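Hi F.,

I've been meaning to write this up properly since the lab meeting, where we talked about keeping a consistent format for the predictions we share between groups. The idea is simple: the sequence comes first, exactly as it goes in, then the structure tokens exactly as they come out, then a line or two of notes. No screenshots and no reformatting. I'm using this chain as the first example so we have something concrete to point to.
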Amino acid sequence: MFDKILIANRGEIAVRVIRACREMGIKTVAVFSEPDREALHAQLADEAVCIGSAKAADSYNNMNNIISAAVEMGAQAIHPGFGFLSENSTFAAMCEECNIKFIGPDPSVIDAMGNKANARAMMIQADVPVIPGSDGVIKDLQEAYEVADRLGYPVMVKASAGGGGKGIRIVRKKEDLQNAFESAKSETKAAFGDDAMYMEKVIEHARHVEVQVLGDNYGNVIHLGERDCSLQRKNQKVLEEAPSPAVSEEVRQEMCAAAVRAAKAAGYQSAGTIEFLYDKSGKFYFMEMNTRVQVEHPVTEMITNVDIIKEQIRIADGKKLSFTQDDIKISGHAIECRINAENPERNFAPCPGLIDYLLLPGGGLGVRVDTAVYEGYEIPPYYDSMIAKVIVHGRDRNEAIAKMKRALYEFIIDGIDTNIEFQNRILNNEDYLAGEFDTSFLEERLLK
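Output, unedited:
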């Protein structure tokens, strides 16, 4: 097993990895930017190295500085967390060249699945249902018009190299296509350095359901069930739960089997997620694969009792999966609320600042808080606004909802604005309680 791992990230995911490593007897190295000098991850790790200034390009996305820190500190592996360099094949390849293990899939797999158009073609070969769309990348605006006419409006213009909701535009009528196509190309070029676009038919009022998979270096691939991530605002997830309240047992088995076929087709090793759209008729369609650990992985951990981070590390160290598919038992229901430093009354404007007072939800059976904030900590304005994740587990969905309401009631944070009350609005909504929601729910019903 690795003796020392560098965590190339910050915030709660860095803390999460550090804790898993400590339980495994592995020493950790934190990297931090100048504003993160007092951050919790930098304090919890065995060693910490400053890798640059506030700007992510100079620190958390600075490959050379991170590799140099790993070499200098004698780290044998790097865990990228999520975001930043977690799906960057160039960084994964640099790790290999420097004889440092990248805790994730091979660079070739990241490239294959990161290119959404190529991934779509691979899924068709693997007999995984895909959304009707373009045959590969759209070369110009004229072809975009032709594909849209063939599919029928509304259509979705999507960045082939996109992620995090960037480079996506829904087009409902022909006269809006040019502006959507060109603005999406520009956005994805700025974000990812690649403006290749493809197009899909919009599946109206669908749910976003994803399957957690694990694959090792010996051809073994298993799934850990599905999560429902339909509650989104501007393509950013807000609340997730597992299992999905909409998916029947028959569809669940089909969807999870398709996810395993998808991962095997990709030659996948590590933790990954196959994302599907699930429509009202009960059909599901492959959207994309995330070749990293997800923000919402805790809900899957809660219903399976599998530590996904530890399993990632074991796989990277060359171990076989600790479980077979028959070992995985889904138990109860879990919900995760993302707590962000933002003001929902001001169009969810970020709210960095000093935390004057903090009371985290009390424990009790089935309550977990993943966070990197503490009383007296100053949230910097340079990074993502998520400051905590509250995760609960109950015997069933109703008990999980009741636990989450209790946990959020106890979550008090002064000095900044948060979305805690907005999360409460969701949990008390009659349609949510009935399990009647889709990806349009928040913007069409709660935010009108």
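Notes:
The CA atoms of residues 292 and 437 lie 27 Å apart.
The chain has 15 helices and 22 strands.

If this format works for you, I'll send the rest the same way.

G.
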